[in-house]
């Protein structure tokens, strides 16, 4: 059966992420880097929740399209958007942020993309949803919500600024 998560459940998951980051980084300087698309919106929400603290908090956006391991199989004119990292990556404590963590291939690509910007001191990973089924040795440091899914399910994330409305749907194959 398909499962839907509400805007309130998404807000709670973002709060969970922010609380864990706040606790574990203890006021030290950090930079949140959201992965397009939707990871950027999650990173922005986290930044708003963490912004009232007395510490350096940077925000950046990473487009990983050119670094995907299936890039050659994508359609001829993939939509490329710019990355925007307005701080010094060398030595920084960076927290990559994405909406869904599934196989881990996007994060592998993001680490590759990030290395073009410099050599961070530390990189961690925050995922709003961990739906399991990893194909790479990549695990999150911070998780908003763990969703039990079957390998062939699809987790659709819709966020207000990107898509107009907050909801998440876990869709079983053949049911839509
Ligand atoms: O762990 P993975 O198997 O890589 O899957 C997770 C990725 O899948 C989705 O992105 P998608 O590739 O659908 O692109 P989009 O965010 O631009 O829609 C999602 O936003 C994650 O970035
Ligand atoms: O279910 C999935 C798989 C990859 N990316 C998503 O956003 N959802």
TrEMBL record:
Keywords: Glycosyltransferase, Transcription, Transcription regulation, Transferase. The keyword ATP-binding does not apply. Residues 8-147 form the Phosphoribosyltransferase domain. It catalyses: UMP + diphosphate = 5-phospho-alpha-D-ribose 1-diphosphate + uracil. CDD domains: PRTases_typeI (cd06223). A motif (PRPP-binding) lies at residues 94-106. It is an enzyme of class 2 (transferase). It comes from the Bacteria. One of its GO terms (biological process) is regulation of DNA-templated transcription. One of its GO terms (molecular function) is uracil phosphoribosyltransferase activity. Its EC number is 2.4.2.9. Also displays a weak uracil phosphoribosyltransferase activity which is not physiologically significant. Belongs to the purine/pyrimidine phosphoribosyltransferase family. PyrR subfamily. This is Bifunctional protein PyrR. It comes from Luteolibacter ambystomatis.
């Amino acid at each position: 059966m398909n499962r839907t998560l509400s805007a309130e459940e998404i807000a709670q998951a973002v709060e969970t992420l922010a609380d864990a980051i706040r606790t574990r980084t203890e006021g030290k300087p950090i930079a949140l880097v959201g992965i397009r698309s939707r990871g950027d919106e999650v990173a922005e929400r986290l930044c708003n929740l963490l912004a009232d603290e007395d510490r350096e908090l940077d925000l950046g956006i990473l487009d990983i399209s050119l670094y995907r391991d299936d890039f050659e199989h994508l359609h001829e004119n993939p939509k490329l958007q710019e990355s925007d990292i307005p701080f010094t990556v060398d030595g920084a404590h960076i927290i990559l942020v994405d909406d869904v963590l599934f196989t881990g291939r996007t994060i592998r690509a993001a680490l590759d993309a990030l290395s073009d910007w410099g050599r961070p001191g530390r990189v961690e990973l925050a995922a709003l949803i961990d739906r399991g089924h990893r194909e790479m040795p990549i695990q999150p440091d911070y998780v908003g919500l763990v969703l039990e899914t079957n390998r062939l399910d699809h987790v659709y994330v819709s966020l207000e600024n990107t898509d107009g409305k907050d909801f998440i749907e876990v869709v079983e194959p053949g049911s839509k």
